[in-house]
Structure formats: structure tokens, C-alpha cells
Amino acid sequence: MIIGKSQKEIEKMRASGRLVGRVLQELRAMVEPGMTTLEVDRAAEKMIRDAGAHPTFKGYNGFPYSICASVNEQVVHGFPSDYELKHGDIFSIDVGVTLEGFVGDTAATVPVGKVSDDRLKLIRVTEECLQLATEQCWPGKHLGDIGHAVQSHAEVHGYSVVRDYVGHGIGRRMHEDPQIPNYGNPGKGVKIKKGYVFAIEPMINMGSVHTKTLKDGWTVVTIDGQPSAHAEHTIAITDEGPEVLTFVGSTAAAEEKIVNVA
User: Fold this and answer.
1) Which pLDDT tens digit goes with each residue over 208-227?
2) 232, 167 in Cβ contact below 8 A?
3) Cα separation, 20 vs 141, whole angstroms
4) Which residues pair with 2 in a beta bridge?
5) CB-based contact 244:253 (threshold 8 Å)
6) What is the pLDDT of residue 260?
7) Sign of dihedral through CA atoms 187, 127, 134, 52?
8) pLDDT of residue 248
9) From the CB of residue 217, how many other CB atoms can be counted at a distance below 10 Å?
10) 244 CB contacts (<8 Å, ≥6 apart)?
11) Is 53 helix (H, G, I), strand (E, B) or coil?
């Protein structure tokens, strides 16, 4: 059952969205070669708790960290570790917060140091997929319109769209109905209504569509070892169109790191 949100509930989700957006903004700005992904996780948890919120991922179905830290061929759900980021890596940071009972969820893939043009393009196209999907989030549209927007844009650039993992509804729980695939046909699927809140999250692979899960039971990697990129926003459906609850302006440091992506 899809749970529509009242205006009061969406206002609370604006607060959680703003907070998690700011946390991700700060994490993006701090990423540099030589930093470990566990250091990024610890910084995220401190920021979240200092703001009076809870790191939603920590303890979720036993997940032991505050962020998902997925590097290079890792698609999603990567464990933060002592791995030191190096020039050429691409680093997906996925973070959620729970504030006053409501969840905000967002993700971005960050280039580390000097990154090859083909990896920068993968990040750029993934962000474009998220933007195009967001533009479909209007009352009266369908979930298939969202998936088609992602799939068609990714595939025209020669990339594959992960099918094993999808976006989702979000609210008092991180994962609510409906599931939102990043592929589909226009005009098909559940009709979108005012008050729905979605976590839209394209996961785009440079190579094969196929994935596997590592022995830790969480980390998802591409089957062929090719890079993957991930981007996510929490989006409320309003009469005036989509409202991106997790968007914040970029810091100068973050902009400098992604200037070559645009």
C-alpha cells in the first residue's frame, strides 16, 4: 500500500531532507585521495547525531554503518572500511537520516582526485538520469514514465541500468511502497498522486547489467568488474510538480571536485 503524506508530514520530510542533503554536501567536499571510506562514515554519523537525528542505515536489517560506501565496481550497499581512496576512484556515498520520525535519503557518486573522462561521463549521465526521472514526478504520470526516463537516457549512452535494485517510497520508514524500477514503459505502472514521496535512485553500469553480492551479505558489485555510478534524491509529489526535498546548494569545494563532470 502506498502511503500518501499530508502537508504536515511533508513539512517534516523537508526538514529531514534538508539535513541529509547538507550532510551529503559536506561529505562530498571532504573526499580526497588518502582518506578512508570509514573516516567518511564516522564524519557522517557525527554530523547526523550532532543535529539531533539518527543515522537511518545504522542497524537497518543489521547494516553496521551510517553510510553505504561503494567504490568503483561496487554498485550499492558497500561497507565503509580502511580502504584508502585514490586518484581515479569513483565513490558512491549513500546516506539517510531520521529526524522527528521521518526519513531523508540521498546519494551521489564523487570523483576522487584526477578521474578518467569515461568515469566522469558515467557520473554525469547518472546525474542526468536522476534529473530526467525527477521531471516525470507529476500527479497523473506513471511509475513507468520514471523508469523509462532513466533507461532511455542511460542506454543511448551505451550504459546498462541495474535491475536487481530499485528506488522506493519513503516516509516514516526508509523503504515503503511502491518499488520504483529504473526501467519501464511510458504510461505503465502505478499512477502517481499528490502526497506521494519517492526516493528515486538510478544505478548505472558502464558494462554488464548483472550484479552479485559479496560474502559480507551486503556489498553489491558489477559481475564484470566495470564501474557503476549511483545518484539519489528524496522527492515529494505536489500539485506544482516534483519537490526535491534533499537538494541543497553546492559548496565551493564540492563544486570544484565535480566541475569536470558537468
Assistant:
1) 999 999 999 999 999 999 99
2) yes
3) 27
4) 177
5) no
6) 33
7) positive
8) 87
9) 11
10) 17, 134, 233, 234, 235
11) coil
